[in-house]
Design goal:
Layout: E1 19-23, H1 27-39, E2 43-47, H2 50-60, E3 64-68, H3 76-85, E4 94-99, H4 103-111, E5 116-120, H5 124-138, E6 146-149, E7 152-155, E8 161-163, E9 166-168, H6 172-183, E10 189-190, H7 191-199, H8 207-221, E11 230-233, E12 237-240, H9 242-246
Parallel strand pairs: 1-2, 1-3, 3-4, 4-5
Antiparallel strand pairs: 6-7, 7-8, 8-9, 10-12, 11-12
Helix pairs in contact: 2-3, 6-7, 6-8, 7-8
The structure holds calcium ion (CA).
Length: 247
């Protein structure tokens, strides 16, 4: 495959990379996928069975799951059905990997709620393209140049943020926080998830640092006297609630 840069490659330091969970029990296949998707700018997690996958979805909040059909223990279809049955993961994009001999399974896979399926053997570039296509549909924020939510606009090219047309000045951390909120409005993020996605998993930062930066973001978003749109969920974390504030 050609190592050309992806069309919608994310600029370094701009945002969290799209996070992909690969559920695959065959080590060689899992490593091949990890290698290819990492190189394409994804943050890649691997789970070797269904139970591990369900745990990883809860703890790591992937943007998309690539799910092998044939897994030991909890099957791919059972994982898919469980994710679809839970409100938090009802619309989490899922691509099923299936062998050519499992023709009927493919249909059952789509009936179980998968967004797409890819037949083994496949080329890594084909799977990358399918993943990008599903992500574009599910999470257009990853391929757009502008994020808009209520009266807040973020230009991802110039890094300008405005509210009701008036410029808002943000520090780099507040910018990344706001970007995450704008990509998934109304969703509640725990402090741990914010740390993980804005600061990165490898950096040690105190949880209360998140509160400090949320305060700065709140203050900046209120520069022109607009309502507070960051909702504090006591004991849990924060969410962006633009409509409530506008009501
Ligand atoms: Ca397998």
């Amino acid at each position: 495959m050609t190592p050309a840069a992806p069309a919608n490659a994310l600029q370094p330091g701009m945002t969290a990379k799209p996070r992909l969970l690969i559920v695959e029990d065959e080590d060689a296949q899992a490593e091949m996928l990890r290698y290819n998707f990492s190189r394409e700018g994804f943050d890649v997690l691997v789970a070797a069975d269904g139970d591990e996958a369900l745990l990883a979805v809860d703890e790591q909040q992937p943007d998309l799951v690539v799910l092998d059909w044939m897994l030991p223990g909890t099957s791919g279809i059972a994982v898919c059905q469980r994710l679809r049955a839970r409100p938090a993961t009802r619309s989490l994009p899922i691509i099923i990997l299936t062998a050519r001999s499992e023709e009927n399974d493919r249909i059952r896979g789509l009936e179980s709620g998968a967004d797409d399926y890819v037949v083994k053997p496949f080329s890594p570039s084909e799977l990358v393209a399918r993943v990008r296509a599903v992500l574009r549909r599910a999470r257009p924020a990853l391929s757009e140049e502008k994020l808009v939510c209520g009266d807040i606009t973020m230009d991802l090219v110039t890094h300008r943020v405005s509210r009701s047309g008036k410029r808002i000045h943000l520090g780099p951390t507040e910018y990344r926080l706001l970007r995450l909120f704008l990509e998934r409005p109304y969703r509640v993020f725990t402090r741990e998830q914010l740390l993980d996605q804005v600061w990165g998993r490898d950096i040690h930062v105190e949880l209360r640092t998140v509160d400090v930066h949320i305060r700065r973001l709140r203050k900046a978003l209120g520069t022109h006297g607009d309502d507070d749109v960051i909702r504090t969920v006591r004991g849990t974390g924060y969410a962006l609630d633009v409509d409530e504030a506008a009501a």
